[in-house]
Specification:
The protein has about 450 residues and is of the alpha/beta class. The protein has seven helices and 22 strands.
Length: about 450
């Protein structure tokens, strides 16, 4: 569809707006920079005392190791001490602000630790004058549209124990999605006597010394944490829900085994796997991801979270009935995250600045429904709505919207090389990848 010829596009009457940005992590910083460069007046609300969001290491853990008790004091961060990026540094920068090159040229240095990522974000904020836009120790407790005719938004916040209310023209939600744990449902868990925890509350391996640990999950955190604790644990058993997994000993450690999905647990402390194995475990560690959460957002049901789908959202960003004055940046995953966030932030800025147009509300709703229909037809579960499956169509679309042709192609070269290396050699060896590996074929981006 040619948006320029749309007879009923969504437009704005004023192009220099008062914009609230919720969160000073990667999404919030990229959004603040884009909005500031277009002349908007911005306030960034950050409930922590420093920027960085999920990249700001917090050694604290929550009182509930599973992170499910609604009365617990919530710790925002989920970083563990040894965490390095699971994408190489060549894919960790923004479209016009690259991540620094490796200092020593070793393959291990291609995957920077969280301290280097935080420094990158601090340098980015300092270079573009973003720090002075941030209100630290300032938690947003309510976001609500109070004048639908003029699209006026109320932000209620608590800053240094002082509650205040302010009015903004637009709100961009950038609060991240690695804080509210999602745990596996295990038959018999009510009577299982062992300890459970979620990776959200994992920091260091020492508490697992001489323990028999079952790790649920097959993503980067499950693999990374298993490797982290195997040096101190007696045994580590990974559980995957993939139907093709068979019980096997992993070459990555003398005390590590791969299993299929857990069948049940019992009051004797046993964990039974569908592959027939039975393990007497001390700890079950859930590396099972997170739920999106926006407890401050009041939209009278216009935006809802159902089965971890935030919707309806046009292009993962705009709720059609509230666009363009409410938007979300940073929801998609399994992608080149920093670049995606940068492009989303630039597109939101284009729309709020009047440099781009959205389709009509009706057209946006229709496209969202069609996307959901295609997911269902392909058998993709609802909770994977914001999963991009390492494909590039969405990045290409954003690149075209903001006029940065060529950026996506450069990223594809490094991305395809790295993803293919990881697929061919196993995630355990993915961090041996380095630019220039002799790989002729590319990962399919169809």
């Amino acid at each position: 569809m040619n948006l320029g010829q749309n007879p009923h596009p969504i437009t704005l009457n004023k192009f220099h707006m008062e914009v609230a940005v919720i969160g000073a992590g990667v999404s919030g910083l990229a959004t603040a920079r884009a909005l500031k460069s277009s002349g908007h007046r911005i306030v960034v609300f950050e409930k922590l005392n420093q920027l960085g969001g999920t990249w700001s290491f917090d050694p604290r853990v929550e009182s509930d190791p599973l992170g499910l008790d609604p009365t617990r004091e919530i710790v925002h961060g989920s970083l563990y001490k040894s965490l390095c990026t699971n994408l190489p540094r060549q894919l960790m920068g923004f479209s016009d602000y690259p991540f620094p090159e490796s200092k020593n040229g070793s393959s291990g240095d291609n995957f920077p630790g969280h301290e280097e990522v935080l420094k990158f974000l601090n340098d980015f904020a300092a270079e573009f004058g973003l720090v002075e836009l941030i209100r630290f120790d300032c938690e947003v407790v309510r976001v609500e549209r109070v004048d639908s005719r003029n699209d006026v938004w109320l932000i209620e916040s608590i800053c240094s124990n002082q509650k205040s209310e302010e009015i903004f023209d637009a709100v961009v939600v950038c609060n991240g999605h690695h804080t509210q744990p999602r745990v596996a449902t295990l038959p018999g868990i009510e009577k299982w006597p062992g300890k459970q925890m979620h990776s959200h509350n994992y920091r260091v391996p020492e508490p697992f010394e001489d323990q028999i640990v079952v790790v649920i999950g097959e993503g980067p955190s499950a693999l990374d944490i298993s490797r982290d604790i195997c040096d101190v644990a007696r045994e580590v058993h990974l559980s995957s829900r993939s139907p093709n997994v068979k019980v096997s000993k992993l070459v990555s450690g003398n005390n590590m085994w791969q299993h299929s999905k857990i069948d049940y647990v019992n009051e004797n402390g046993e964990v039974a796997f569908q592959d027939g194995a039975l393990v007497q475990a001390d700890i079950i560690l859930h590396c099972t991801g997170y739920n999106y959460s926006f407890p401050f957002l009041k939209t009278d049901g216009i935006v809802n979270m159902e089965h971890n789908r935030v919707g309806p959202l046009y292009k993962h960003i705009f709720p059609p009935k509230l666009a363009p004055n409410l938007s979300f940046v940073g929801l998609p995953y399994q992608t080149v995250v920093f670049l995606l966030i940068d492009l989303q932030a630039k597109w939101v800025t284009h729309i709020l600045s009047g440099s781009g147009l959205l389709p009509s509300k009706e057209e946006m709703v229709a496209e969202v429904k069609e996307h959901y229909r295609q997911m269902e037809a392909k058998g993709i579960p609802q909770h994977h709505t914001h999963c991009l499956h390492l494909k590039f169509e969405y990045l290409d679309w954003l690149v075209n919207q903001v006029g940065l042709e060529g950026v996506s192609e450069r990223v594809k070269i490094s991305s395809s090389s790295y993803f293919k290396f990881a697929a061919d050699n196993g995630l355990w060896k993915a961090k041996d990848w380095k630019p220039g590996n002799d790989i002729e074929e590319s990962l399919s981006v169809d």
